[in-house]
Amino acid sequence: MEVRLFWYTRGKGTQDVKVAKIVRFDPVTARGRHDFRFVLQDSPYSFSGKLVSLVWAIGAVAEPGDVTAGLDLVIAPEGKEIVLGAVG
Prior knowledge:
Blueprint: E1 2-11, E2 17-24, E3 47-48, E4 52-62, E5 67-73, E6 82-83
Parallel strand pairs: 3-6
Antiparallel strand pairs: 1-2, 1-4, 3-4, 4-5
């Protein structure tokens, strides 16, 4: 099983994905529990624009079977996504 911290782009054009960190757990039982911690990066910030957005996420992947689960995050000053083109 792996837990990944990554960012991806969403919107027009080709989707980019960059894995920042990976934590692996071996072996994993059907009802196992593991604690993990990521130190979040300073950049790039989460942002949303008219054509593209950058979204941070944590994803878990369990094999065999490629079972996945994920959660989107915001990494930006004051914990708020930067809205491109916004005034104020």
